[in-house]
Design goal:
The chain is α/β, with parallel strands linked by helices and about 250 residues long. About 40% of the residues lie in helices and about 15% in strands. It is globular, with a radius of gyration of 17 Å.
Amino acid sequence: MSKKLEGKIALITGGSRGIGAGIAKRLAADGADVAITYTKGADAAAAVVREIERAGGKAIAIQADATDAAAVSASVEKTAATFGRIDILVNNAGTAIPKSFEETTLEDMDHMLDLNVRGAFVATQAALKHMKNGGRIIMIGSCVGERMMTPGLVAYSATKGAIKMFTQGLSREVGHRGITVNNVQPGPIDTDLNPAAGDWAVPQKANTALGRFGTVDEVAALVAFVARPEASYITGANLTVDGGTNS
């Protein structure tokens, strides 16, 4: 099988677990050299790197809290210094703090804004300096950034709505360089943060057309496609991988 991303350099923020780890492994399997950032899970990040290396790929893990602008910029510089440039940036680092709006604190809101929006802003600005024409910027948004039916995610959905518009606006500014900017919007995906057997799973599953949670690999497959050369005419798009949640 020819590797569609052979010779490409990818940076995935928040790549030590869940969707981010799945994306890192998939891009590496498709031939890319991969850097991942992580906040706390050094062991988990090291395990992702080992798995990629065992399969014959190249990977590094960089400790960088996505809410720390200097650390995010440094992680981009380290990736470029190690591999020479950045071809693909996946802004995956993010979190939800599910609770009713009236119980959501200002600290909760600030944390989600810092991580989900500001972190993507900083990483993207830093990566663009190292990205040649034809690069790929891929946001990991959420289906609730476009259509909101899940209770307890008012503040979170607002941050993902911001990512949707950030994607659309940025695509127009970097289009002349052949750089595409797309927003992959997962629905309910079975991860540590949102387990298919968790308390919040029942209403989420009921909202899907397929009647099930998705897998990390199903999200990673769409990210890998958008990263490929043949996806070069897809930009400014919000692509849901949500089992029909928004259908």
